[in-house]
Design goal:
This protein is α+β, with helices and mostly antiparallel strands and 248 residues long. It contains 6 helices and 10 strands; from the N terminus they run ααββαββββαββββαα. The strands form 3 sheets. A 6-stranded antiparallel sheet has the order 2-1-3-4-5-6. A two-stranded antiparallel ribbon has the order 7-8. The termini are far apart.
Length: 248
């Protein structure tokens, strides 16, 4: 007697079998690839942090990270402290760079105390404070790392995105945009103001560093608004800590 392969029972059992097989394969791949994925995340975050304090391999126009081979040693060399600010308390944590900002934002929306990582670096006799930030662009998430001095004057910045429009909003990760932030003041008259990506800035060479504005990217208004909101909302959370620092 031939097997019936067109019955509902056979179809159901076959589907269940395929789900189990595929699920097992995917679980195995996820488990086996996890160390590589985690290592890539570590490298990327350390590269971003170093970039924001000016430790990179930039040429005249391109943004180039410290190489994967050198990033661990460079991170150890330049980053002197990794801090976590939570509920008014500041603690040191050598794995603060692994804190997931997206998860912390979600936790804060649920009423939990958010952890704010902050990285302290030393280079050429100067102290840098690098904060990771995350927000929403036109299509999806935008994020970045902003390096500051003790007065919350920007010393460097790196921005990235998940799905902004190529040639428009995606340009937030290009040198011509990121470099404009260097020297910009986040405070004005002692109060936190942030930095606005402005279409009416009228300062194309970005000479005025105390106007709390940089020029917008043409055709990327919503992405620019998202970056502005991200900077103001996220970096404001660090003001209390910076107010404790002795400044000139």
């Amino acid at each position: 007697m031939s097997k019936r392969t067109d019955s509902n029972l056979y179809t159901m059992l076959f589907a269940i079998g395929m789900v189990l097989v595929v699920g097992t394969i995917l679980a195995f791949l996820a488990s086996s690839l996890k160390p590589t994925i985690d290592e890539n995340k570590r490298i990327e975050k350390q590269q971003n942090i170093l970039y924001a304090m000016g430790v990179n391999e930039n040429d005249e126009s391109s943004a180039i990270f410290v190489s994967k081979e050198n990033v661990a040693s460079e991170f150890s060399k330049y980053i002197t402290k990794q801090l976590v600010i939570q509920g008014g308390k500041v603690t040191e944590d050598q794995k603060a760079y692994l804190i997931d900002i997206k998860k912390e934002q979600t936790a804060a929306k649920e009423g939990k105390e958010r952890r704010l990582p902050l990285f302290v670096g030393e280079k050429d006799g100067k102290t840098f404070y690098i904060a990771p930030i995350r927000g929403k662009g036109l299509w999806d998430a935008v994020w970045g790392y902003v390096g500051m001095d003790a007065n919350m004057v920007v010393q460097g910045a790196y921005f990235d995105h998940k799905g902004e429009t190529a040639g428009l909003g995606a340009n937030i990760k290009l040198r011509f945009f990121m470099d404009d932030f260097i020297g910009e003041h986040l405070k004005k008259d002692g109060s936190f103001k942030g930095i606005t990506i402005s279409k009416s800035n009228n300062d194309p060479k970005n000479i005025d560093k105390i106007d709390n504005e940089v020029d917008a990217i043409a055709g990327a208004t919503i992405t620019g608004d998202g970056v502005s909101a991200m900077i103001k909302t996220e970096l404001r959370k660090y003001v209390t800590y910076f107010n404790t620092l002795k400044t000139n």
